[in-house]
Specification:
With about 190 residues, the protein is mostly beta strands. It is built from one helix and 16 strands. The chain has one helix at about 95-100, and strands at about 1-5, 10-15, 20-30, 35-45, 50-55, 60, 65-75, 80-85, 90-95, 110-115, 120-125, 130-135, 150-155, 160-165, 175, 180-185. The strands form four sheets. It has a five-stranded antiparallel beta sheet. Strands 14-13-12-15-16 form a five-stranded antiparallel beta sheet, with no helix packed on it. The chain has a four-stranded antiparallel beta sheet with strand order 2-3-4-5, with no helix packed on it. It is found in: Cytoplasm.
């Protein structure tokens, strides 16, 4: 059994007999002695429906046994994305909805983990950090030193947009956290 406080985004849990992927997770304390509640956003893997729950930190969910395969991204095929199993060299097709918000970070030959439950792909896990090049960004007005000035930047290949500090320019390589989709640092 897995406690709610240990369920992180991207993990698979079993709730009410159905598999759910944890999309967001935020623990917070209630009162002086109230304990900790965990706000969780869950997506049902069968229906795609989203639900919000608020269990106590010690509430338990049933463990799910998953098979992990290390894969390398190969190419897109319509709404499907083709990966190559690094051990058997079999092709695995994954629907873009399973990849989710991280689709903008997917690059050719990228290595990922795909988790399977009873032969069905249930989760695609990206590396925690990816490095990408900025393909387009606007200039920021000079002299604005009032705080952390951010601007929009488009990333190579995908055109995915994120906020970056004003000192980042076209052609700069940056590190991005795939869990939060936020800028981490500029890569030298």
């Amino acid at each position: 059994m897995k406690e709610a406080i240990d369920c992180k985004p991207g993990q698979i849990i079993k709730k009410d007999g159905a598999l759910h992927v944890v999309r967001s997770w935020y623990p917070h304390k209630i009162g002086d002695r109230g304990g900790i509640l965990v706000d969780m956003k869950l997506e049902n893997l069968d229906t795609g429906s989203i639900s919000m729950i608020q269990p106590r930190s010690q509430d338990k969910f049933e463990d799910v046994v998953l098979e992990r395969k290390q894969v390398q991204y190969s190419y897109p095929d319509g709404e499907m994305y083709v990966f190559i199993d690094k051990n058997t060299f079999d092709q695995i097709e994954i629907n873009e909805t399973l990849i989710g918000d991280n689709l903008g970070f997917l690059r050719e030959n990228m290595e990922l983990d795909i988790f399977f439950h009873d032969g069905r792909a249930v989760s695609v896990v990206f590396p925690t950090f990816v490095e990408m090049e900025i393909s387009y960004t606007e200039n920021v007005a000079r002299g604005d030193t009032s705080g952390k000035v951010m601007k929009k930047a488009k990333l190579e290949d995908s055109g995915y947009e994120i906020d970056v500090p004003s000192f980042c320019n076209i052609g700069d390589r940056i590190k991005i956290d795939t869990r939060t989709h936020e800028y981490v640092e500029r890569v030298k």
